[in-house]
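User: Please fill in residues for this 215-position structure.
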């Protein structure tokens, strides 16, 4: 996607944080997958430019480590419209001038959904995730620090990597005992010449085998 001068301009935004979740991108190539742990996504209710409403801002891990953003904080900053919406769940990134206008009051309530300050990205990587039903995510998990909606880039033909498709997938990094959790249907990955790969339950079981039910 060609970047234009208009979407390179920084816009001011401010509002109350509704959630903080990891910003992770998933690359699939048939039965192989790899993750890019990029930072965090702030879901904010407030204003961006001249518009009021709910929006999402992508930030880096250094910014999160400095400000320790969590739900119910009031914050402000500058950001740029994303260049390629297929690769981001947020509408804005390259955040700068970040300020905490008002800190969250009191300790977060016990989950689920689990709130508070999310852990560092290495913790997410170490925990591993399970697939999460998209409808369950939308209904129960958008404010949980363990929920994640990932942009997925799929290489359809290994011999011709330019053939790609894009979609969104939802995952859970939280405790296996969470009462809200629903895995949803198994994920199918398209391949060359009409083939497809179905990701079995064993993939999630293997990724989280080192964790107990409440970890």
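Assistant: Residues filled in for all 215 positions:
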């Amino acid at each position: 996607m060609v970047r234009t001068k208009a979407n390179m301009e920084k816009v001011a935004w401010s509002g109350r944080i509704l959630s903080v979740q990891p910003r992770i991108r998933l690359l699939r190539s048939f039965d192989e997958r790899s993750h890019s742990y990029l930072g965090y996504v702030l879901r904010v209710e407030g204003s961006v430019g001249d518009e009021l409403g709910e929006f999402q801002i992508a930030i880096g891990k250094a910014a999160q480590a400095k400000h320790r953003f969590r739900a119910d904080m009031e914050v402000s900053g500058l950001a740029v419209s994303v260049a390629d919406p297929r690769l981001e769940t947020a509408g804005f990134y390259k955040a700068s001038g970040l300020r905490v206008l008002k800190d969250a009051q009191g300790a977060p309530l016990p989950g689920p959904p689990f709130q508070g300050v999310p852990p560092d990205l290495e913790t997410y990587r170490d925990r591993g995730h399970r697939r999460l039903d998209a409808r369950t995510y939308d209904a129960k998990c958008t404010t949980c620090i363990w929920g994640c909606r990932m942009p997925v880039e799929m290489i359809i033909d290994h011999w011709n990597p330019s053939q790609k498709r894009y979609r969104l997938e939802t995952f859970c990094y939280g405790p296996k005992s969470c009462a809200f959790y629903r895995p949803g249907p198994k994920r199918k990955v398209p391949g060359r010449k009409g083939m497809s790969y179905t990701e079995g339950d064993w993939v999630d079981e293997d990724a989280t085998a080192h964790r107990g039910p409440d970890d």
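For context: Helices lie at 5-8, 61-67, 121-127, 134-141, 201-207.
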